[in-house]
Amino acid sequence: MIFLMGTSPRFDQAPRESSSHAPDLLNQSPATPVTRVMDTNLFVARPRMDREQVARLFQRRRLWVVPVLDSHDHILGRIGVHDVMDVLAAEAREDALHMVGTSPRELIRPARAWTTARVRLPWLTACLACSLASAFLLRAFETVLDRAIMLVPFISIIT
Asked: Disulfide-capable partner of 32 in 21, 28, 53, 70 (CB 3.0 to 4.6 Å)?
């Protein structure tokens, strides 16, 4: 992907921002104006854009690379699809840790493990008590379950 920025005598009909794939440019005759092979529908990223917003842009438009432009439309760099994949992996890891009630900081600082355990201990105790109650109930109704074997698949729903 080649990003064409600004204007020059050769690009006198060109919009301010455009792009073209290198094979498209190389396969044209030298007399062909760049405006005939360039794509003016250019998607850009700005320095203050959220990482997830840039990732959505890549996903929706199936892009491979996006230029990063400042407020004066000067090119600052580019973001490739591999960079976005790294961001998405980090976000997915962070979301997964959040779903299980932890964070990357807890994994980095093992000295706070006791604090984390103290916070989670009431919930763990409640889960253990409910599991033990379910086990005692299943033991009490073992004879019923022997006679009505069709109820066994529903035990996981009940417990």
From this structure: 28
Paired sense of beta strands 17-20 and 2-5, if any: antiparallel
Q: What is the pLDDT of residues 25-57, one digit of tens each?
A: 677 777 877 777 776 777 888 999 988 889 888
Q: Whole-angstrom Cα distance, residue 63 to residue 83?
A: 12
Can you point out the beta strands (E) in 35-158? 65-69, 75-80
Residue type, 69: L
- Measured between alpha carbons, how far is residue 112 from residues 85, 96, 97, 101 in Å? 31, 20, 16, 14
Here the tokens at position 147 are 């006679």
* Residue whose tokens read 């409910």: 130
